[in-house]
Amino acid sequence: MDAMSTTPTTLPAKTWTRETSGAESRDLWTAMKRGFRGRCPRCGEGKLFRAFLKVADGCDRCGQDFSHHRADDLPAYLVIVIVGHIVVPLALYIETNYSPPVALQLAIYLPLTLVSSLLLLQPVKGGVVALQWALRMHGFDEAPESGIPPV
To answer: Contact at 8 Å (CB) between 36 and 28?
Structure first.
C-alpha cells in the first residue's frame, strides 16, 4: 500500500456566493444607480417614490414590495456629509483668499447648502433603499431563515 491510498480524499469546500445561493441575482451597483434615479432597483422602470421622500409600497411595473425598507436617518446623514465636504472647503477657500463681508457669505452659503441638500436627499434615499434591496436586508430576502420572521 502506498502513501497515496491511505490518505482520505476531501472534496473542496463549497463557498456561498450570491450566484450559488439559487436566488435572484442582484447587482449592487446597477441597483444603486437605479435607486439614485428614483427607479425600482429590480426592474429599473417603475417609480421608487410616490412623493418627495415617501417610498412607494411597491413597484407598479414588476410588483417588487418596498414596504420592508428601513432607510430611517441614513440618507440625511449622508447628505450632510456630502454637502459639508463641498460647502466647507469652498467657504474656507473664499474666506482665506478673498475675505468678503459676512453678510455676503451668508447670502451665498446658506442657500447653496439648502438647495444642494434638497436636491441630494431623494437620490440618496433611493440609493439607500436600493442598497438594502440588493443586499437582501430588512425583509427584501425571498427566503428568510426558517422560524425567523422578516422585520
So the answer is: no
The helix-helix angle for 102-134 and 74-97 (nearest 10°) equals 150
How far is C-alpha 60 from the geometric centre of its chain's CA atoms? 20
Integer Cα distance of 52 and 120 in angstroms: 11
Phi, psi of 30 (to 5 degrees): -65, -45
Q: Determine the Cα–Cα distance for residues 76 and 125; give it in Å rounded to an integer.
A: 8
pTM across the whole model: 0.78
* Per-residue pLDDT tens listing for the chain (151 residues): 555 556 556 656 555 554 555 567 899 999 999 999 999 999 999 999 999 999 999 999 999 999 989 999 999 999 999 999 999 999 999 999 999 999 999 999 999 999 999 999 999 999 999 999 999 998 887 665 555 554 4
CA distance 81 to 79: 5
CA atoms of 95 and 58, how far apart (whole Å): 48
